[in-house]
């Protein structure tokens, strides 16, 4: 399971990660005006939240970056001829 840590000192409370997450992993903590993790089990580690965070306040642990499984051999052949 992905572990998500949000640095509350760094979080600016913009809510970009809340809006951007396709799986509703986050909500705004209205009392603190900060993002909080509410559905960590639903995180698919796409890291779109991490990329959009202007404060770089998120850290994701235990992720496994997917390798490119699809290889277009025709395109690779063309590129190899050019290079």
UniProtKB/TrEMBL annotation:
Domain 4Fe-4S ferredoxin-type: 2-31, 34-63
Taxonomy, superkingdom: Archaea
GO MF term list: 4 iron, 4 sulfur cluster binding; metal ion binding; oxidoreductase activity
SUPFAM superfamilies to which the protein is assigned, alphabetical: 4Fe-4S ferredoxins
Keywords, sorted A to Z: 4Fe-4S, Electron transport, Iron, Iron-sulfur, Metal-binding, Repeat, Transport
Entries under InterPro entries matching the protein: 4Fe4S_Fe-S-bd (IPR017896), 4Fe4S_Fe_S_CS (IPR017900), Fe-S_Ferredoxin (IPR050572)
PROSITE patterns xrefs: 4FE4S_FER_1, 4FE4S_FER_2
PANTHER family for the chain: ADENYLYLSULFATE REDUCTASE, BETA SUBUNIT, L-ASPARTATE SEMIALDEHYDE SULFURTRANSFERASE IRON-SULFUR SUBUNIT
Official protein name in the record: 4Fe-4S ferredoxin iron-sulfur binding domain-containing protein
Species name: Methanobacterium lacus (strain AL-21)
